[in-house]
Amino acid sequence: MEQLLEYFGVITGLLYLLLEIKQHKAMWIVGFLTSLVYVFVFFFSKIYADMGLNIYYVAISVYGFWKWAQTDKTVQEERPAEETILYRHITWPLFAGIAFAILTIYALIYYVLHNFTDSPIPMGDAFTTSVGIVATWMLTHRIIEHWIFWVIVNFVSVYLYYIRGLYPTLFSYLCYAILAIIGYITWKKKGINTNGNII
Fold first, then answer.
1. Model pTM?
2. Which terminus in the chain has less CB density within 10 A, N or C?
3. Cα separations (Å) of 151 from 7, 145, 183?
4. Taking all residues of the chain, what is their mean pLDDT, rounded to a whole number?
5. How is 63-130 classified by DSSP, letter by letter?
6. 131 vs 99, 110, 113, 148, CA distance in Å?
């Protein structure tokens, strides 16, 4: 059953990324299902912070869908076609806030994992979770640099899942890393920079 859930998560996770690259709102629904499945996969594998991260993903998928729907209504007249990709760049003050948030979340998660769980990889688990939380928030606001954060998280995750023997998930995260690079290039090439108008 656990392996079946893992394979399901791999397939829906790849579908999620393909939809994310195109900025299709259905990605949030697929992401909801993928995250729900991975809550159980990571629980059984004792990767507790990633399990918690996927609980967060379940919740933020609802917020992301709502946020994008609101944004699309706001810019409907300016948006030439439904397929148009909108994005904005991170600012230095926002980057400073994001860096602080990552460090704070990392320290908290590492402390909990190291002292209160039997997690075999508390540092790596805390790192991918803290960066993933912030990167997903960046996505809800269509900040293009979220793709760079995901490239880093996905490559680190490949190593962590190799250690834990989660080979189908390892493969999917390798694909995620490659798709994150493609996503960044696609948004940059085909997207419209809204100059911070989307918040």
1. 0.88
2. N
3. 21, 10, 10
4. 89
5. HHHHHHHHHHHHTTTT-S-TT--EEBPPPHHHHHHHHHHHHHHHHHHHHHHHHHS--S-HHHHHHHHH
6. 9, 13, 16, 11
